[in-house]
């Protein structure tokens, strides 16, 4: 057993409270401008934070799962509709959690933008973060821009 680091534990849940979760060992965080995130959230962008899949669990309730593509699965609350998480069968040991569903969303800052090729034209985030037209140069666990 590793030493517990309370600041590393992230708690969150859906709007109505039927779903609650905990996660730890944050990997990275970023904005996704893909059409699937836009349509599934009804929002111009989703901000995600990645965790090892084994470090995420629901502490209350059971998510409803929607297959948004051949490889993607999205967890929703069946009662209030909040989208909680995204999983890809191409990266089975990772789960991405909707940053806005965290109890402390300001505690995680996005580090990059992906799928900006489908970014909505009137929507702009004024930052200097790296931007990728697709899912980035390294779609595996680490997305690091070229130096
Ligand atoms: Zn709910
Ligand atoms: Zn997306």
Comma- or semicolon-separated keywords:
binds zinc ion, 5% helix, seven-stranded mixed beta sheet, three-stranded antiparallel beta sheet, mainly beta, 1 helix, Metal Binding Protein, Guanine Nucleotide Exchange Factor, Chain A, 147 residues, 10 strands
Detailed description of the structure:
This protein is mainly beta. It has one helix at 35-41, and strands at residues 10-13, 20-23, 29-32, 46-52, 56-60, 64-67, 72-76, 83-88, 94-98, 113-114. The chain is globular. It binds zinc ion (2 copies). One zinc ion is lined by residues 32, 34, 36-37, 115.
The CATH class = Mainly Beta
Number of domains: 1
Using the alpha-carbon principal axes, give the shape. globular
Tally of individual helices:
1
Q: What integer is the average pLDDT?
A: 91
* Strand order across the largest sheet: 6-7-8-9-4-3-10
- As residue ranges, the low-confidence spans are none
Beta-strand fraction estimate: 25-35%
Number of E strands: 10
Bound compounds, each kind once, are: zinc ion
Order of helices and strands: EEEHEEEEEEE
Question: Distance between termini?
Answer: 36 Å
Query: Which structural class do you get from the secondary structure elements?
Result: mainly beta
Question: What is the alpha-carbon Rg in Å?
Answer: 15 Å
Architecture (CATH level 2) name? Beta Complex
């Amino acid at each position: 057993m590793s030493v517990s680091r309370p600041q590393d534990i992230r708690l969150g849940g859906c709007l109505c409270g039927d779903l609650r979760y905990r996660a730890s060992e944050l990997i990275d965080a970023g904005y996704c401008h893909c059409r699937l995130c836009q349509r599934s959230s009804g929002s111009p962008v989703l901000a995600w934070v990645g965790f090892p899949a084994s470090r995420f669990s629901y502490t209350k309730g059971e998510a409803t799962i929607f297959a948004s593509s051949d490889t993607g699965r999205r967890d929703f609350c069946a009662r209030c509709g909040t989208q909680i998480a995204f999983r890809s069968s191409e990266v089975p040991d990772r789960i991405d959690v909707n940053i806005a569903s965290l109890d402390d969303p300001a505690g995680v800052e996005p580090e990059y933008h992906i799928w900006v090729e489908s970014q909505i034209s009137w929507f702009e985030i004024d930052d200097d973060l790296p931007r990728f037209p697709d899912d980035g140069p390294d779609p595996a666990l680490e997305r690091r821009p070229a130096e």
